[in-house]
Amino acid sequence: MNDDPVISLRDYQLAMLSPMCDRAPAQAQALLESVGADRSDTVAAEQRRRTMQPYITVDECAAVWGSPASDELDEDGTLRYTRWDLSFWPDLQVEFAELTSNYRRVVSRQFVRRPGSSAPQLNTLADLTPWSCTQGELEAGRFGPLIYVTGFGAVGDLDAFTVVDPETGRERYYWADFDWTLLQSVEPAPHDWRPEPGCACHDPTP
């Protein structure tokens, strides 16, 4: 087991919230007030999160956070998916994916909808507000498939999709910005932006 302690689940949520204070400030501030914390608490929690061993395991987290809400293997048995409920985001869970080989380590962390919670209704651009959906939900809905722009599955992931621009009535690219796969913002992509060559996606430009 690693020598460095695992931070509390509250601190982990504060750490996940830290970048959102800049990227979805209204939602982040309202949440901070509701949990009796401030921006400095998120910065300190993020610093503590970074001191955790880089290859922390699910069992080490469970020893501090308590039993997960769910714990299962994929069909091949190569990945273990474990979820914990979140007090900051009651409709969501944080899901860890861990390799089950001898070199066990968590390889991804993301927000997922908690079973039993209502799925978001994503019909128009106006529905794509900060924290309204996860990356997977946007991908699976009418705005998918998403087109990778940049990111590594953590803070500042950027995906593109096509939709009719409500101002011009013409289809164009939009960018969706995610932290830990939770939507932070949506904005028109630059007019000269195009997907990488070879992308099997619909191009709305003439």
The shape, in one word, is globular
Supply the number of helical segments. Answer: 6
What strand line-up does the widest sheet have? Answer: 1-2-3-4
Mean pLDDT: 91
Q: Can you write the helix and strand succession as a string?
A: HHHHHEEEEHEEEE
Give your account of this protein's structure:
The strands form two sheets. A four-stranded antiparallel beta sheet has the order 1-2-3-4, with no helix packed on it. Strands 5-6-7-8 form a four-stranded antiparallel beta sheet, with no helix packed on it. The protein is 25% helix and 28% strand. It is of the alpha+beta class and 206 residues long. Helix 1 (9-17) packs across helix 4 (39-51). It contains six helices and eight strands, in the order αααααββββαββββ.
Topology:
Elements: H1 9-17, H2 20-23, H3 25-35, H4 39-51, H5 58-65, E1 70-73, E2 79-85, E3 92-99, E4 106-113, H6 135-140, E5 147-150, E6 155-164, E7 171-179, E8 182-188
Antiparallel strand pairs: 1-2, 2-3, 3-4, 5-6, 6-7, 7-8
Helix pairs in contact: 1-4
